[in-house]
Amino acid sequence: MRWYAVFIKGMKEQIRDFWILAMTVIMAPLFIAIYFLMVETETPVYDILLVNQDSGIQHDGKQVNLGDSLVFYGQLLTGSSGVSMFQFRTEISREKAIEMLRQKQAEVVVVIPDNLSASVFDTSGVTSTTAQVELVGDVTQMEYIIGAVWTEELINQFVLETAGIHLPISWKETTLGHSGQRSMFELYVPGLLILSIIMIIFSASAAIVREPETRTLERLKISRLTSMEFLVGISLVQIIIAILSLALALVTAVVLGYTLIPGTLGFILLISFLTSLSMISFSLIVAAMCRSIKEVAIIGTFPLFLLMFFTGAAFPISGGKLFSIGEFEVMLNDILSPKFAVEALNKVLIRDMEIRDTIPEMIALMLLTLLYFIVGTMAFKKRHMRAL
C-alpha cells in the first residue's frame, strides 16, 4: 500500500500547487472558447468586384448586354440564401479595381470581357474566339481561393441558364458520417478534447520532478518504495486531473453548442484514459531532462507545442510520409501518440464509424504508451531514482 501513501501525498501537493493545477485544467476549456469565437461569432464576407467591359450585341432585334445582366445577377445574389457570405459590387475601371484589391478592399476582381454577349448569343459563326472572363487576386490568400471558385461556378451557372444549355449531368452531395451536420466549431472539438489531456504533461512532470528536487526521495527510499509504486501513486493523481480537465472541456463545448452523440461518452472516456496514461509516460521523459519544477516550465514548453500542433489536436494535420508497410503508411508524426487518439475520436464523432474501427488507433496508442513508459522509466531511474 506504499503507492497509496504516494497518491495521498501527491493529491495534497497538487492542491498546494494551485497555479499549475489551474493552468492544466482551465487551458483546454479556454482553447475551446477561443475556437468558438474564431469560427462561430463572425461570418466571413467575401467582396467580389465586377468590372463590366462587355460591348453587347444585337439579338432578336434587341440590344443585349450580357455583362449588365451578369452584374445585376450578382447584385441579386448578394446576401441571398446559399451565397450570403458573398458581396458583389461593381467598378468601372479595371485598374481601380485592382488597386482596391491591393488595398485589401476586395478579395476577387472579375473582369467581364467585351465579347461576352457576342460569344454567348452569336450563332452566325462570325465570332470565333471564346469570351475569356478574367479573375484577379492574391493566390496565396484563402479568401481569394474561396471567392474565385464560387464566383466562377456562379458565372458558369448564369451563362448556361442564359444560353439555354442543359448539362447531361447533375450533382448530388452525400456528406460522410456526421460531417454534414456538424458546424466548423464542432469539427474542432474532438482534437480539443485530446488537447485537454495533453495539458497534464506540465502537472505530471512537475509532480515527478518535485520529489528529487525537495529531496523527499531520500526519505521515501527508507520505506523501500519501488519505482513502480512511486509511479503508480503519481499516475493516479494525474489521471484524476486529466478526467477533470476533460470534463470541463466537454461541458464548455456543449454549452457553446457542441452536440454530444448519444452512446459515445463511454468511448470518449476510454480514449481519454488511454491518452492520459500515454501523457504520463511521456512526462517521465520530460521529467528525466529536468532537475527542478522551474526547468519543467521551460523545457516542457517545447514538447507541449509539438503535441499540440503536430498531432491534429489544435488543428487538422496529416504529417509527412516516411515509408509504407504494405497498405499502411507510416507518417512523420506517428511517433506522437495523441495523433491516434484524435483520429479515433474523429472516426466515431465525425465520420460515424463503429468503435471497433478504432482498434488500430487504440493499439498504436497503447504501444507508444509502453514505449514512452520504458524509455521514461529508464531515464528517470538513471537521473533521479538510481538509489531506490
Q: How many domains make up the coordinates?
A: 2
Shape: elongated
Integer average pLDDT: 84
**What is the tally of beta strands?**
8
* H/I helix tally: 15
Q: Which structural category fits the helices and strands?
A: alpha/beta
Unreliable residue stretches: none
**Considering DSSP H and I runs of 4 or more, what fraction of the residues is helical?**
55-70%
The major β-sheet equals:
4 strands, mixed
Span between termini: 17 Å
Strand order of the largest sheet: 4-1-5-6
Q: Kindly estimate the percentage of residues that lie in beta strands according to DSSP.
A: 5-15%
Order of helices and strands: HHEEEHEHEHEHHHHHHHHEEHH
Rg calculated over all Cα atoms:
30 Å
